[in-house]
């Protein structure tokens, strides 16, 4: 299966795509980085609004993609730990990274979060689609039943969100500081006039 076919198969939640992807982690990581860039482009309106210079804009996109990749690695590792420890699954961490990386293929549409009025809904849809893809990928890589795969994938997702809202708060502040420093300006939400 070539890379384009793999992405289309991931979009359709085909378990065979995730099994095939599990043999090489590089492609999965490439999908995650491309998805991170797509999301960063979608969220770049604030950078344009404050007049960030092109070099700093490009650096900001790369930082955003890297931060997205860190979140992905945390989710994938959590799912792997739950699958191997709770269900005694035998899949490797590398296979998990590859398959869950490909499962982030829906996030390649992340630039569409910029669409007025529908951006938030599109972002929510992409998140649910990605969670479903990670669920299918987890079941495929670890040969788990649907409830076990859901527990591992959703459990990993939940651990990431709990961490972000507790011990991860200092890291979130550091992340915001890095983005502000790279952009060279204070990043504030864009407000529409007439409110």
Q: Which structural class matches the secondary elements?
A: mainly alpha
> How do the SSEs run, as a string of H and E?
HHHHHHHHH
Estimate the helix proportion, in percent: over 70%
Largest sheet: none
Number of strands: 0
Number of domains: 1
Rg calculated over all Cα atoms:
17 Å
Unreliable stretches (pLDDT < 50, length at least 5) are: 189-195
First and last CA, distance: 51 Å
Q: Please indicate the percent range of residues in DSSP E strands (runs of 2 or more).
A: under 5%
Instruction: Please tell me the overall pLDDT.
Output: 84
Our count of helices gives 9
3D shape: globular
Layout: helices, strands, pairs:
Blueprint: H1 3-11, H2 15-21, H3 25-42, H4 45-49, H5 54-86, H6 93-103, H7 119-142, H8 146-165, H9 169-183
Helix pairs in contact: 1-2, 2-6, 2-7, 3-5, 3-6, 5-6, 5-8, 5-9, 6-7, 7-8
Task: Write up what this structure looks like.
The protein is 73% helix and 0% strand. The model is unreliable at 189-195 (pLDDT under 50). The protein has one domain. The protein contains nine helices and no strands. The protein has 195 residues and is mostly helical. α3 (25-42) packs across α5 (54-86). The radius of gyration is 17 Å and the shape is globular. The protein starts with a helix and ends in a 12-residue tail after the last helix.
């Amino acid at each position: 299966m070539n890379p384009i076919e793999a992405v289309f198969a991931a979009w359709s939640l085909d378990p065979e795509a995730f099994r095939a992807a599990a043999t090489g982690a590089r492609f999965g990581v490439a999908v995650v980085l491309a998805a991170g860039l797509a999301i960063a482009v979608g969220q770049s309106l604030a950078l344009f609004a404050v007049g960030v210079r092109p070099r700093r804009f490009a650096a900001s996109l790369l930082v955003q993609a890297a931060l997205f990749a860190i979140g992905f690695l945390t989710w994938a590792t959590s799912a792997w730990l739950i699958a191997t420890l709770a269900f005694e699954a035998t899949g490797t961490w590398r296979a998990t990274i590859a398959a869950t990386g490909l499962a982030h293929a829906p996030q390649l549409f992340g630039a569409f979060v910029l669409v007025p009025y529908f951006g938030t809904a599109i972002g929510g849809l992409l998140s649910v689609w990605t969670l479903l893809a990670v669920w299918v990928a987890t079941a495929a890589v670890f040969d788990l039943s649907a409830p076990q795969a859901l527990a591992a994938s959703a459990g990993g997702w939940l651990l990431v969100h709990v961490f972000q809202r507790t011990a991860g708060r200092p890291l979130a502040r550091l992340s915001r500081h890095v983005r502000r420093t790279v952009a060279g300006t204070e990043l504030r939400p864009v407000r529409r006039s007439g409110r």
